[in-house]
Specification:
1% of the residues are buried. This protein is mainly alpha-helical. The longest helix is centred in the middle third of the chain and has 25 residues, at 48-72. The protein is built from four helices and two strands, in the order ααααββ.
């Protein structure tokens, strides 16, 4: 049985405490994904924004964990590219590599 989405009157204040830093972002979803997200929110009794926020927090946490492992294991972008190729997944973007302190050049990684 589907639960109704909570009323905004009963929702806690949307404004974060002054001590928290906020970031805005835009999420582009196709109709099927948006419908599935809406259904999940309805069945969980949550707002779509809460579900998206949870997913973003999970991804940030995963990225932090990955960054720690990259530093601990002293991996270079060449290692990461080889691993991505072996796993048949997309390579880490140049932007993310730069944030990790790794840089690609025309000859490969530096």
């Amino acid at each position: 049985m589907a639960m109704p989405i909570p009323s905004r009157r009963n929702a806690p204040d949307a404004d974060p405490p002054a001590s928290q830093e906020t970031t805005s972002f835009i999420v582009n979803l196709d109709k099927a994904t948006l419908d599935a997200l809406h259904q999940k929110a309805r069945s969980d009794g949550r707002y779509i924004s809460e579900i998206v926020r949870t997913a973003v927090e999970r991804e940030v946490s995963n990225m932090t964990h990955a960054t720690i492992l990259i530093q601990r294991w002293n991996l270079q972008c060449e290692d990461l590219d080889r691993a991505a190729d072996a796993l048949r997944v997309d390579r880490i973007s140049d932007e993310v590599m730069h944030r990790l302190g790794l840089h690609r050049n025309q000859e490969g990684c530096s």
